[in-house]
Amino acid sequence: MSDVVVALDVGGTGMKCALIDTDGAVRHTERHPTDAGRGPDAVVETILAVAEGLAGKAHADGLTPTALGIVVPGIVDEARGVAVWSANVGFRDVPLRELASTRLGLPTALGHDVRAGGLAEARLGAGRDAGHVLFVAIGTGIAAAHVVAGTAATGAHGAAGELGHILVRPDGPVCGCGRPGCLEAIASASAVARRYAELSAAEPIPTAEPAGTGTAELAGAGSDDGSAARWESGPSMVTAAQVAARAAAGEELATRVWREAVEALADGLATGQALFDVETIVLGGGLAQAGAGLFDPLRTALRDRLTFHREPRLVPAALGDEAGCLGAALLALDQLETS
Amino acid sequence: MSDVVVALDVGGTGMKCALIDTDGAVRHTERHPTDAGRGPDAVVETILAVAEGLAGKAHADGLTPTALGIVVPGIVDEARGVAVWSANVGFRDVPLRELASTRLGLPTALGHDVRAGGLAEARLGAGRDAGHVLFVAIGTGIAAAHVVAGTAATGAHGAAGELGHILVRPDGPVCGCGRPGCLEAIASASAVARRYAELSAAEPIPTAEPAGTGTAELAGAGSDDGSAARWESGPSMVTAAQVAARAAAGEELATRVWREAVEALADGLATGQALFDVETIVLGGGLAQAGAGLFDPLRTALRDRLTFHREPRLVPAALGDEAGCLGAALLALDQLETS
Q: Cα separations (Å) of A312 from A49, A163, A214, A315?
């Protein structure tokens, strides 16, 4: 009879859930809506019920659930097992680890979604050959995880890695957090779309899409902790993916907006490299799906900014939107090792 | 017969050396000139000879030298024991750990001066009650050490903690490293003095010192790795300490320069807090000697910049210019524990 861990990645809109065995192989996956509008108590009850359901599913399949890992966005105090603050899930000081371990009778780890995603990318994904990795998730917001020797830094209060809220443009737009010039206010997928919409309104352009323009959702991963600028897309709003494609097709306005975002992102990554000195920077989240249109100019811009620092490898994430759930499983397995 | 470690803090101009026992008590200190102009081979020979002399002094005093710790500025690869790059000591890829351990026959640790100073402040000094500490040395340059649970982060290539070289003012002055707008180019002691001199030349002011102006040397600690803007003080140049004093006395130009430095420093510390999330920020180096004239406005400016982050304690360093040497001793003691 094989051992598995139960893993849940709880986001503002949905939960990605899995049963994962001790070798990291995914045995079963499920998705459930979060329905955060029902309030935190209802969301907690759903999390616990889903986790119980997964444990039951394991037993039914002849598997033994041995531990539980849950990751949530926002500020998460891993050491105390408390979801300190998560605006879009509605959590404030929820002792989720204890609630879950009591309900399921399993050793439980509570973690942060982006840090867990970074952990998974560093151990199993695009950073797996590096001892020092910076994982940066760029979607509706921007957040990072600094992973050294397979452990993600949490900070003293569970708030480490807020790369989206470092100053890059003192005279830049005001961020969702209230401060001007944060990286997230310029280089997140939502900021790119918003900036393009603003400039288009000031300077109308043809609305026909150039050939090859995708409509891929770029809101994807990233810390959706509510401090992030939200992804607000009206029916007529051009997405960041479309801005990238229009820039690639040579459209002047899109080129300008995209370049502004890439330059700001390079400044943010250069600051990260100055402080962390990693071997590999892994970019995930929706914006990273822009591929060479992002990575080629970003590598050049980053190289321009590094003087005495070693240049890190800059690579796309390998695990897609499963990274957070895999990271939750890794936290659960780590919990077993230390308990 | 009591055990001691031999500790050397090698700077561009001088070496601070000590014999320190296993309880951290300093049994003997010496200072020697570095004379870096003689070239790296001669500096290495002096380091080895001074270390031998200290070991001999220990024996003569009935003490047993059990390990050696050496810290140098620049980029230091602790894992390989190599001084990778240190402009003002003239080192390039010097395998100093092996050279020293072969010569003295003692387990030897090689470290970075500011990281070692941070280690000492975090374990023994102003950060000793905190698990997560950011030590920031502000002198001729600005550098930082992130210390978690008594270990300073080194980075993948020995270059972590370069807080002086993060972007804070995209349209700011060009830094010694070649990039515009680095924190160090605005908020280091040398940058404050330089900026004041520039503006004074443009707008001459009375040269009489207001009452209470000190002439304390503010170049002090800080990463003197040569990438830093150098401390250049002509006979007529007003020091950063004097700028701080004139600002406190209400002089308009000094107030403006001091405020610019404090605001930039607050931006840099806010970025550090967003990424590291520490309990305590310890400020060392010469500029921190400005006392309340620095700490009061800096605390306010930092608080203004923190939105969802926890505010760290902001405190002056406690160990003065002995911190690097104490850190070297701690690295030597750590080496004994793990070998």
A: 43, 17, 30, 9
H/E run at residue B185: helix B184-187
pLDDT digits (tens, 9 = 90+) for A92-123: 999 999 999 999 999 999 999 999 999 999 99
Kindly write down the DSSP assignment for every residue of B243-262, as one continuous string: HHHHHHTT-HHHHHHHHHHH
Check CB contact under 8 Å for A276 and B158.
no
B130 inside 8 A of chain A by CB: yes
Chain B residue whose CA is closest to A226:
B308
Judged against a pLDDT cut of 80, whether residue A231 lies above it is answered with no
Find out whether B214 and B248 touch, Cβ atoms under 8 Å.
Answer: no
**Contact residues, B window 195-224, toward A, CB-based 8 Å cutoff:** none
Nearest Cβ partner for A167 among B267, B276, B277: B267
B185, B176 contact by CB (below 8 A): yes
In sequence order, the 6+-apart residues with CB closer than 8 A to the CB of B228 are: B140, B141, B142, B143, B164, B176, B184, B188, B190, B222
Q: Which chain A residue lies closest to B273 (C-alpha atoms)?
A: A160
Q: Are B314 and B167 in contact (CB under 8 A)?
A: no
At residue A87 the predicted structure's pLDDT band, cuts being 50, 70 and 90, is confident
> Which H or E element spans position A281?
strand A280-284
Q: Where are the domains of chain B?
A: 2-120+321-338, 128-317
Per-position b or e across A118-150, b if 16+ CB within 10 A of its CB: bbbbbbbbbbeebebbbbbbbbbbbbbbbbbee
**Strand A82-86 versus strand A75-77 pairing type:** antiparallel
Whether the domain at B2-120+321-338 and the domain at B128-317 fall into the same CATH topology: yes
pLDDT value at position B1?
Answer: 66
Q: Which CATH number fits domain B2-120+321-338: 3.30.420.40, 2.60.40.2660, 3.20.20.220, 3.40.50.300?
A: 3.30.420.40
Q: Give φ, ψ of B110 to 5 degrees.
A: -110, 135
Residues of A with Cβ-Cβ distance to B279 under 8 angstroms: 156-157
Could you give the C-alpha distances from A227 to A155, A169, A231, in angstroms and in order?
18, 18, 12
CB contact under 8 A, B276 and A148: no
Q: Are A307 and B227 in contact (CB under 8 A)?
A: yes
CB-based contact B268:B166 (threshold 8 Å): yes
Residue A86 phi, psi (nearest 5): -150, 95
Torsion of CA B289, B293, B295, B299, to 10 degrees: -160
Q: Is B26's Cβ below 8 Å from some Cβ in A?
A: no
Packing angle, helices A96-104 and A40-60, rounded to 10: 40
Q: Which of A169, A272, A275 sits opposite B161 (nearest CB)?
A: A275
- CATH code of the region B128-317: 3.30.420.40
CATH 3.30.465.10 fits A129-317, yes or no: no
Nearest to A132 among B156, B167, B227 (CB): B156
B270 vs A: CB within 8 A: yes
Q: For residue B77, what pLDDT is reported?
A: 94
Does residue B143 sit at the A interface (CB-CB below 8 Å)? no
Tokens of A37: 């509008």
Q: Name the band, by pLDDT with cuts 50, 70 and 90, for residue A84.
A: very high
Q: Tell me if A275 and B132 make a contact (CB, 8 A cut-off).
A: no
Collect all residues of chain B within an 8 Å Cβ-Cβ radius of residue A307.
165, 177-179, 227
